[in-house]
Design brief:
Chain lengths: ~160, ~250
């Protein structure tokens, strides 16, 4: 049936051997196996809320972010018009204050939750996850608080 | 005088349907090495045959150590899902002629599950997720003396997800499953969907709660890899979306 058969190895795939009898490969626990470390309940509505929030905030962000970009970068002289006077003029109106505040909170929470997903996906070790998420949450809280503070306490007569 | 007609007949009968194909198989044998190796096999095969036939030719005539799973050989037992030319398929449903035999055909184990040998993976995490969604009919009250009746429309509601053969082509094509293997995976959700939307079943709420897990349906990122991979043509991503929708509409 099958005639001329040559079997030629075309080389190692993953960079050669790393382990041998004296240096055995680390034991990897099978995923989803019930061990002593398995948390009892991992259910709850948090992931559902996060999932919903991503879609709802995304819809609102389309309007807020695109409107923001349009006003800041294209209309009325484009980016060159932006200066202290321009910002002071806009934040004199509660409408733009609310717009910017909403955009700040939604974009930050949306972006932070998105990055949380990315960290969950890509950070393999529990410790790496912990540190990356700690950094992420710190940066998020800091930026949201600072931004909110500035929007509410902005003083156009500052010298 | 030469008879062109006869010549033609002779030529035709002499033409063999066999062509030479290079099967490039990712070999792994933990008793020999901890690294896997691509190995090429040249075989003669009719392009109308399947990748499974090519593997059989190698195993039976060339190298008996080649290890893979297969049982029915007709696309119904779900044993032989493998990554063929970079795509998850059943070896018994993939014709050689459909995957460009001019180039070497790569065959490797499905991803995201521990390789035991060559093309055989440890399916235990996959079946653990399957068991976790309670893939059996749950009812309350007395057992009826006749079969449990259901209207044609009620049966139609979950028809698509009854077709699953648990081959793991979908779950092992999912990038979220590749990450840490904790995600329930499309196949488990498909089989939960099979009962959640069955009018005779009474544990739908319980199954939805199970899939409301931190590694449940909300980890799905709608990449559609599962739908592309399913050899049964199940609309896997759609089934997952329906479970998400059921979770949201039942609660709000
Ligand atoms: C302009 C309107 C926007 C819409 C409609 C939108 C929509 C979405 C949706 C639906 C997701 C979830 C994807 C999934 O679960 O698979 C997502 C993820 C994400 N979004 Fe947005 N978003 C918008 C703006 C933004 C902004 C302004 C930021 C940055 C601050 C951002 C950062 C992210 C990140 C980091 C992710 C996670 C990426 C991933 O899961 O792969 N998005 N977005
Ligand atoms: S849904 Fe399709 S790809 Fe997934 S296990 Fe079932 S038959 Fe295989
Ligand atoms: S051998 Fe049964 S599905 Fe392919």
């Amino acid at each position: 049936m099958s005639a001329d058969t040559t079997s030629t190895a075309i080389g190692p795939v993953e960079g050669g051997a790393h382990y041998d009898v004296d240096n055995p490969a680390p034991y990897i626990e099978a995923p989803r196996k019930r061990t002593g470390k398995t948390p009892r309940a991992t259910r709850g509505n948090f992931e559902m809320a996060a999932w919903l929030f991503m879609r709802l905030s995304g819809v609102v962000l389309v309007v807020l972010v695109l409107g923001h970009l349009l006003i800041q970068l294209f209309l009325d002289g484009g980016v060159s018009k932006i200066g202290f006077a321009f910002v002071a003029g806009r934040w004199a109106s509660p409408f733009w204050q609310v717009w910017d505040l909403l955009m700040l909170w939604l974009a930050m929470l949306h972006g932070a939750n998105g990055l949380r997903t990315v960290i969950n996906d890509y950070a393999e070790r529990a410790n790496t996850r912990l540190w990356l998420k700690g950094l992420l949450y710190t940066a998020t809280v800091f930026t949201i608080l600072l931004g909110t503070l500035v929007i509410f306490t902005f003083d156009p007569n500052i010298r | 005088m030469a008879t062109p007609v006869l010549d033609k007949v002779e030529a035709e009968s002499a033409a063999s349907p066999y062509i030479t194909v290079t099967m490039r198989i990712r070999r792994f044998n933990p008793e020999v090495s901890d690294a896997s190796v691509w190995e090429d096999f040249q075989i003669e095969i009719d392009p109308k045959e399947r990748v499974l036939d090519a593997l059989h030719k190698i195993k039976w005539d060339v190298d008996g150590t080649l290890t893979f799973r297969r049982s029915c050989a007709h696309g119904i037992c779900g044993s032989d899902a493998m990554r063929i030319n970079g795509k998850n398929r059943l070896a018994c449903k993939t014709l050689i002629k459909d995957i460009n035999p001019e180039k070497p055909i790569t065959v490797e184990a499905i991803k995201g599950l521990t390789v035991l040998k060559d093309l055989v993976v440890d399916m235990e995490p996959f079946f653990q997720a399957y068991r976790d969604v309670m893939p059996f009919l749950v009812t309350k009250g007395n057992e009826p003396t006749r079969e449990r009746l259901q209207s044609a429309e009620d049966r139609e509601r979950f028809d698509d997800t009854t077709k699953c053969i648990l081959c793991a082509a979908c779950t092992s094509s999912c990038p979220v499953f590749w990450n840490d293997g904790q995600y329930f995976g499309p196949a488990a959700i498909v089989n939960a969907h099979r009962f959640i939307f069955d009018s005779r079943d009474e544990a739908g709420e319980q199954r939805l709660e199970i899939l409301n897990d931190k590694d449940g349906v909300w980890r799905c990122r709608t990449t559609f890899n599962c739908t592309d991979a399913c050899p049964r043509g199940i609309e896997v991503t759609k089934a997952i979306q329906e479970v998400k929708r059921a979770l949201i509409t039942r609660r709000f």
